[in-house]
Design a protein that fits this description.
With 145 residues, the protein is mainly β. The protein has one helix and eight strands, in the order βαβββββββ. The protein has one domain: 60s Ribosomal Protein L30, Chain: A, CATH 3.30.1330.80. A six-stranded antiparallel β-sheet has the order 1-6-2-3-4-5. A two-stranded antiparallel ribbon has the order 7-8.
Length: 145
């Protein structure tokens, strides 16, 4: 286990509009505001999303299992922002649904907003954290100093 203790910095409220892209929008705000570490909360709607719902296979390398969500639906999610060598990166898990159809997972394949999405970014200060490539999994995983 690794852990670090930080403090709450700024709190940023963001409203995304119909058709905007989740990752691109949140990472753009984080870059502009020079956010290195944060917790992220979202609530609102998705028009479409390509969601990782676990691995298709785990060995020798993890292969993600994607499921598609299409049509206007509700979403809530919780995630983090930590930087890699390219800048701030969002990692978020969501519950998305409409009626009796729902998906829970990580919308890594992109997500388009339906009508409005409210985003709260809670900056974490005083820690050194970064996403670094883990050769075994092939993913950029969180590392704390």
């Amino acid at each position: 286990m690794e852990y670090a203790v930080g403090k709450t910095g700024r709190i940023i409220a963001v409203r995304l509009f119909e058709g905007e892209e989740l990752y691109e929008s949140i990472e753009r705000v984080a870059k502009k505001e020079r956010i290195k570490s944060a917790a992220v909360l979202i609530t609102g709607g998705f028009r479409a999303a390509r969601v990782v719902v676990g691995p298709k296979k785990e060995k020798p390398k993890i292969v993600p299992n994607f499921k598609e969500f299409k049509g206007a639906g509700e979403v809530l999610g919780v995630g983090t922002i930590y930087c890699d060598d390219e800048g701030p990166k969002l990692h978020i898990h969501t519950a998305i649904g409409r009626g009796n159809k729902y998906i829970v997972g990580c919308p890594r394949g992109g997500a388009k907003i339906f009508l409005v999405l409210e985003v709260t970014i809670i900056e974490i200060t005083g820690i050194k954290a970064a996403r670094k490539l883990d050769k075994q999994s092939g993913f950029k995983l969180l590392r704390l100093e």
